[in-house]
Design goal:
Blueprint (H helix, E strand, L loop, with lengths): L6 H8 L5 E5 L2 E4 H18 L5 E5 L4 H13 L2 E5 L5 H11 L3 E4 L4 H8 L7 E4 L18 E6 L9 E5 H15 L6 E4 L7 H4 L2 H6 L3 E4 L5 H7 L5 E4 L1 H9 L13 E4 L6 H9 L4 E6 L6 E4 L14 E2 L4 E4 L7 E8 L17 E9 L5 E6 L4 E3 L2 E3 L1 H9 L4 E11 L3 E10 L5 H9 L10 E4 L13 H11 L1
Parallel strand pairs: 1-10, 3-4, 3-5, 5-6, 9-10, 9-11, 11-12, 12-13, 23-24
Antiparallel strand pairs: 1-2, 7-8, 13-14, 14-15, 16-17, 17-18, 18-19, 20-21, 22-23
Helix pairs in contact: 2-3, 4-5, 9-10
GO molecular function: ligase activity
Keywords: Ligase
InterPro entries: AMP-bd_C (IPR025110), AMP-bd_C_sf (IPR045851), AMP-binding_CS (IPR020845), AMP-dep_synth/lig_dom (IPR000873), ANL_N_sf (IPR042099)
């Protein structure tokens, strides 16, 4: 297991190898080529930027962006990948917040980048993301505490905030993850998450390159193509929405999944029904939990315990400490607190953070010491003086045979203070009052939603996290 303290050194350690480092579409690059490519980017950046400058990107996942990250690591710059799914006003707000020196774009996002900058008072230099030409140079001294990635949170309940990730954080989260993944040169890792998300880097990809494995990167998610890629894979990671889309594909039943020894699910809760679909195909699909502010890896299902994991996110990774606010020991429910070497030091432009990270997630711990996330602190509401946890009502709705997915939000009510409104996605025609009756048979009256709305889909972020803020506004407008 490598103990090199910076990303630059980890790649350099593999740099003499002619083995394939990354494949993306029809392109591939060896470790030797990637190492040299990173040096070229470092030299290019030193000519155009200053230490600590942010280098923003608007592009699909690519080998080029991976080389750029390592170039930033060697030059003491900060890669700031932006989501191309955002609209220009949203992107302009992120540019104004972090004031990057450069904005690099791929061939498909030049117009989006230009439109974004027209809305910005701060104007970074605009340039295509293409392999730099000219003499390469090696890396100098790298500060392990220096920021190497600036990832913006998904903004599922408010304005996105920048989370600086240091070399030390990235290495620490990789070391923790390797206690479960145990990656080596013979592994093939398929990465399905976009590179503007923390999971597109620190959940498997950077660890794979530190261990000499082959990394397969998808430019953009497509269920059928992803299933084809998994025929070569030993390890993969995706969010529930992606696993659901692959399971719904006509080619799922015949896809070759025999080489997969580990499939991690994160980003949102993994429904037990979906997990079992993959288990029946012989794939050890298991839930993990994390957040960008913690690097992101926090909880995982222990190896060999997958079939006992439905609905649970397991135990802390090695080196990660967790606690429940207000719960001393044993079973209980409370806000999940996290601390450890991969926890951030504060939001970009905000005050420093020390000690326990308050996640805002409400978690339950059982007698085994296993955890599961049961909701957000701000997802709950108080109806008639009684506390209601949205996740509990959602679980009951999802037991209805016609319900595919459900989200419950609380809105103000003159009589009860707050009431719940449920938004349900159904696989067949369903009676909304019948769903309320279903809840009444299984829940106390104050927990039964005041209204149920059947919708075609739930509004979500690019990674499938439900936009509860949008649903609350919809519920208020419906009144």
């Amino acid at each position: 297991m490598s103990h090199l303290s910076d990303l630059s050194g980890q790649l350099r350690h593999q740099g003499d190898s002619g083995r394939t480092a990354v494949r993306c579409g029809d392109e591939s690059v060896s470790y030797r080529e990637l190492d040299a490519h990173a040096d070229a980017w470092a030299a290019w950046l030193r000519e155009r930027t200053r230490p600590g400058d942010r280098v923003a990107t608007l592009c699909r996942s690519s080998i080029e962006q991976i080389a750029l990250l390592y170039g930033c690591a060697r030059a003491g710059r900060v890669l700031m990948p932006l989501s191309y799914r955002l609209r220009p006003p949203e992107l302009a707000a992120l540019v104004a917040d972090a004031t990057p020196a450069l904005l690099l774009h791929d061939a498909g996002h030049g117009d989006l980048a230009a439109d974004t900058l027209r809305r910005c008072a701060h104007r970074p230099v605009l340039s295509p993301l293409v392999q730099p030409r000219g003499a390469a140079e090696g890396s100098g001294d790298v500060d392990p505490e220096g920021t190497v990635l600036l990832i913006h949170t998904s903004g599922s309940s408010g304005r996105p905030r920048g989370v600086p990730l240091s070399h030390r954080m990235c290495v620490a989260t990789g070391e923790a993850l390797d206690g479960v993944a145990a990656l080596g040169p013979d592994d093939v890792v398929v990465q399905l998450l976009p590179q503007h998300h923390t999971g597109g880097w620190t959940v498997l990809p950077l660890l794979a390159l530190a261990r000499g494995a082959t990394l397969i990167v998808e430019p953009e998610f497509d269920a059928d193509r992803a299933l084809h890629r998994l025929a070569d894979a030993t390890v993969t990671m995706a969010v529930p929405t992606m696993y659901r889309m692959m399971a719904d594909s006509a080619s799922f039943g015949t896809a070759d999944l025999s080489s997969l020894r580990l499939a991690v699910c994160g980003g949102a809760a993994l429904p037990g029904q979906l997990a079992r679909i993959w288990w029946e195909r012989g794939v050890p699909l298991c839930q993990g939990y994390g957040l960008t502010e913690a690097g992101p890896n926090v909880l995982c299902v222990p190896p060999g315990s997958v079939e006992a994991s439905a609905g649970w996110t397991g135990v802390p990774y090695q080196g990660v400490e967790v606690a429940l606010a207000g719960v001393a020991a044993g079973p209980g429910t409370g806000e999940l607190l996290v601390r450890g070497p991969a926890v951030f030091g504060g939001y970009w432009g905000g005050p420093p953070h020390h000690g326990w990270l308050h996640t805002g997630d409400l978690a339950e711990r059982d007698e085994r010491g296993w955890y599961r996330i049961v909701g957000r602190l701000d997802d709950g509401y108080v109806s008639g003086g009684e506390n209601v946890t949205a996740a509990e009502v959602e679980r009951v709705l999802c037991t209805h045979p016609a319900v595919v997915d459900a989200t419950v939000v609380g809105i103000p009510d003159k009589r009860w203070g707050e009431v719940g409104v449920a938004f349900v996605v159904a696989r067949s025609t369903v009676d909304e009052e019948g769903l309320r009756a279903w809840c009444r048979e299984r829940l106390a009256g104050f927990k039964v939603p005041a209204r149920v709305s059947v919708v075609e889909s739930l509004p979500s972020t690019g990674l499938g996290k439900v936009r509860r803020d949008v649903l609350r506004e919809m519920a208020r407008e419906a009144r």
